[in-house]
Every structure is written in structure tokens, then in C-alpha cells.
Write a structure and sequence with these properties.
Oligomer: single chain
Order of helices and strands: EHEHHHHHHHH
Number of domains: 2
Distance between the termini: 15 Å
Shape: flat
Number of strands: 2
Helix content: 55-70%
Number of helices: 9
Radius of gyration: 18 Å
């Protein structure tokens, strides 16, 4: 597991662009937390999450806990979340902490993932087998849920013809969600 990060390490995970687009010092290698703090306003948050939400940087436990946190953040945006979804998150958290079995996790997700308006579906689906995918998809779905909730609220507040204002409100909510995700991610590298 990597304890530091550099352009060379980022290239090994094959991003869709060269990291030197954002980080010009090819010789710089930093502890991950320091890298996040230094570049969080340079590298887009979605890219920070894409880079770091993988087994090369986080333990399976931390990936699962991050996915659960993102999914619970998504559930906060659902007016009446289904109890099965909340229970599935609870079981996933207990599983990550060694307090539930794989059979309990499988059983929780056999009934839970389909009931959260698609917002937590991918995280729930992948939590059973792939913690890294679960963390990444949970972050993306939480971001989308924040955008959708803000879009709905702004649509109620503004005349629907003011599409620009509605999209701006949703865009800022989405950015706030990504910022919160990066903040949460930082806690795993302390």
C-alpha cells in the first residue's frame, strides 16, 4: 500500500490525463495527506477521489467505511429512506469493523440496494464484493444526490424558466458534497 504519492505513482494507475497537467514538479513525492492538502484546490476533487479510492492507498476497511459514510450522506437527502437501506449500511459498517459476517452482509444487500432511488444502489451493490468500487460509486452517487436535491429545491424556489439559477444552485451543492468527501477522505490518512 502506498504511503506517499507522486506523478509517477499516479501514472501507474493510468488516469485519463497526465498528472503534470496539475502538478508540475515531477520529483515531488509527498505523504498522501500532505498531497491532498497541497493540491485539493488544484486537482479537481473528483480526480482526487478517483486516484485515492483504491486498495493501493486505503485498506479495505477504510474503503468500506468511506462508502458507508457516502451512502449515509445520500440517505440524508432521501425524504423517507427505506429502513432496509439504512440497515444495509449499518451491517456494512459492522462488517468493516469485524462485527458482522459476510453472510450477514450478503443478506442485508439482498434486500437493501434497490430501495434508495438509485442514489445508493451502486455503493450497496459493490459493498458486498469490492470495497474500492463501492467507495468510488458511493462518492459519485452522493455527489449526484446532492445535485439532484439542490436542483429540486431550486426548482421549487425559482420560476422554472430560470434554468440557469437552478443549475447554479445544484452545481454549488454538488461542489459542497465533493468538498465534504475530500474532507472525510483526509481523516483516513491521519
Amino acid at each position: 500500500m502506498y504511503k506517499t504519492i507522486s506523478n509517477e505513482i499516479i501514472r501507474q494507475i493510468q488516469p485519463c490525463y497526465d498528472p503534470s497537467k496539475y502538478i508540475t514538479d515531477e520529483n515531488e513525492e509527498l505523504p498522501i495527506k500532505d498531497w491532498i492538502q497541497k493540491y485539493r484546490n488544484v486537482v479537481p476533487a473528483k480526480d482526487i477521489l478517483w486516484i485515492l479510492l483504491r486498495k493501493e492507498f486505503l485498506s479495505e476497511k477504510d474503503l468500506r467505511l468511506f462508502a458507508v459514510w457516502c451512502t449515509m450522506e445520500t440517505l440524508k437527502l432521501v425524504k423517507k429512506p427505506d429502513k432496509r437501506s439504512v440497515e444495509a449500511c449499518d451491517v456494512a459498517e459492522r462488517y468493516a469493523n469485524g462485527q458482522a459476517t459476510k453472510d450477514e452482509l450478503d443478506a442485508a444487500y439482498d434486500t437493501g440496494p434497490y430501495v434508495v432511488n438509485d442514489a445508493a444502489y451502486a455503493a450497496a451493490y459493490y459493498l458486498v464484493n469490492d470495497a474500492a468500487k463501492a467507495a468510488y460509486y458511493a462518492a459519485n452517487h452522493a455527489n449526484f444526490a446532492a445535485f439532484a436535491a439542490a436542483f429540486d429545491s431550486a426548482s421549487d424556489a425559482f420560476d422554472i424558466t430560470n434554468y440557469y439559477a437552478i443549475n447554479v444552485a445544484a452545481y454549488y451543492a454538488s461542489n459542497i458534497a465533493r468538498t465534504a468527501q475530500v474532507d472525510k477522505l483526509l481523516t483516513y490518512f491521519e
